[in-house]
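Sample intake — TetR/AcrR family transcriptional regulator
Collected from: Nocardioides humi
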Amino acid sequence: MSARDHLVTVGTRLLEEHGLAGISLRSIANAAGVSHGAPRRYFPTYQALLAAVARGGLEDLDAEIGPALAADDLRAAARAYLSFARTRPEMFALISRHDLLEGAGGNLREITGRWFADLGALLARTTGRTPRPEECLALWSGVHGLAALTSRRATEPTGIDPTRALDVLLEKHGTPAPRSRGAARSR
């Protein structure tokens, strides 16, 4: 593994263990076993290192939702997004920080921009009409908002399974809820 990749791997581990507020260039360098100045050889700024960490997280998330989007399975893509937020909350928080990562490298919008385009194309194919961009953004915002609440455990006091709330959201956007096994048998 190259020194650059090692720093990204260590940065990812520390992010997942301590959150964004609990890491710094110095803590990453210490955990990587390199001098405090070593990260600057590969990343001109702390934000550039965070962008590289975020790129890895986006690629992991893309591996989960990309196939579902390609298969026109919006429900599976949304559930994968929700699952990622639940299981990797610190990475989810980082990849959502466009304010922090903008201009830091990593070509992050290459992935998220493709998701937005894929979402519009999927809705066009499944509904038979071209959705307005605002419709796509509203749907993405709803899924993302639920994922963000779930990642920070804010949905727990409600006692509601977030995937059920996701089903309601998708149904409101024209994606019918899956039939339960019991309902399918009774028909």
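Post-analysis note: The radius of gyration is 19 Å.
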